[in-house]
Amino acid sequence: MLSRVSESLYWIGRYVERAVDIIRLLDVHVHSLIEDPWIDSVAAACDLMEVMGMGREAGDNAELDTGSLAHRLSFKRGDASSIAGALVAARENARGVREALSSELWEALNATYHSL
User: Pairing with 39, which of 75, 91, 93, 95 sits 20 to 30 Å away (CA)?
Assistant: First the structure.
């Protein structure tokens, strides 16, 4: 039982760290587009999607712009490479070991999950 709890705690940290890293990548991407208007935004968005392991989906013929990139990296719950997906996975791990977590940590994860 101890190994299950420690594994869940490890993955909570990893998923929260992943969410923060995605936020930082998206922030740098948007600021680079703002600072240099000559950057091809579609190519930059496709490159960032490839880095995140979220290639174009089948039937996705629309141009990938910064808005759709931000939406996919932020709110796609089924993919752990998105902010919402990472936070959902962190919350699910926290639910399994709720008795081992502080109430502040659980409330922070739960409030973030519900605000998404």
Answer: 75
Percent with pLDDT over 70 in the chain: 91
Which tens digit of pLDDT belongs to each residue from 79-105?
A: 878 999 999 999 999 999 999 999 999
Tokens of 29: 């991407």
- Residues 6 or more apart whose CB falls under 8 angstroms from that of 86 comprise 15, 16, 18, 19, 22, 80
Q: Residue 97 corresponds to which amino acid?
A: V
Query: Are the C-beta atoms of 68 and 93 separated by less than 8 Å?
Result: no
Residue partners of 108: CB distance under 8 A and separation at least 6:
none
